[in-house]
């Protein structure tokens, strides 16, 4: 059962919305639906609703709903600082009086930038060198769990696929030069992983460093050639994607660099995780996202924002091959857990049919719950609360929660990775 001291510390939260221009517009965005349900805010049909944030990050902090006797507009971060015991001693010892994770919902209409997130060492260095661009010293591993079909570019294609690109896409060879292209084409796996990485790094850096004029010219050539070839054959999915990206970001080097990355399509219920220094770009769809509490992004293409191509190309791991896709594993008949290899977070998805009941057992760390669809009852100790879609709740460590429902209920929970507690014993 819940520890009595924590029963009253389960709090309803107001989330925060980011209106980045790649978001879905108006009511078609899950982010907009959740915002309206969560805080009663008006949804504007022509406004993009990109991200719904739940957590303590300074760029989009959650607040306690109605103050809950704590006074109006009390931020979750401020409240945790005053009540640090809600985190549990292991979390407090490791990360201090703050949540180590940030929980989000994303509604993606248009490709996000080609980007990577620095590891802790680089993050601290970037904060020191460019504090106006990189505003915290933390790393930002992350995981996207698809709600709808979700598309992304993630990680570099294999050596064999890369050779195919250099043979089939003459416009890339024009940009990187024959000598570098030949260097890649002449490599075999027997040459060893480091040599392959070195050649990939050279050719990718050369491509991303192309002048705006050269990039625009090459992309125009690709577009023209593919339109002609589409009359004679079916274009590949990657070729179709490149034409689609060109409409969104005309003349952007990120359009042609898409040929270097894995094109990933997640079905609902599948998740993709991204470690430090791995290149990626979300393309379309809606997802639950969780990450370490940071907003550090190094961008290099498909964006009107600041690009830091030198930093990006120097920081990447240049690991090749298709990324791991998590399908989750059952914790109970109704709860599926997604456990990435990062200490800061895990995500549970709970789909509870009408008339069913399930228990989230007491754990040594804090959780944030998002009621995504439906309506039900949370029982915490002797207290019962009705919860409906759009509700966000903070649950302290050592809080057991029983959920029952009279209609189908879909909710997500973010918490500290359970492996962290096992390793911390």
Automatic annotation (TrEMBL):
Chemical reaction(s) catalysed: D-mannose 6-phosphate = D-fructose 6-phosphate
Xref: PROSITE patterns: PMI_I_1, PMI_I_2
Residues annotated as domain Phosphomannose isomerase type I catalytic: 12-156
Domain Phosphomannose isomerase type I helical insertion: 176-260
GO molecular function: mannose-6-phosphate isomerase activity; zinc ion binding
GO biological process: carbohydrate metabolic process; GDP-mannose biosynthetic process; response to cadmium ion; response to L-ascorbic acid; response to light stimulus; response to zinc ion
One GO CC annotation: cytosol
Pfam name, any one: PMI_typeI_hel
Cofactor binding, note field: Binds 1 zinc ion per subunit.
PANTHER family assigned: MANNOSE-6-PHOSPHATE ISOMERASE
The name this protein goes by in its record: mannose-6-phosphate isomerase
Organism this protein belongs to: Gossypium barbadense (Sea Island cotton)
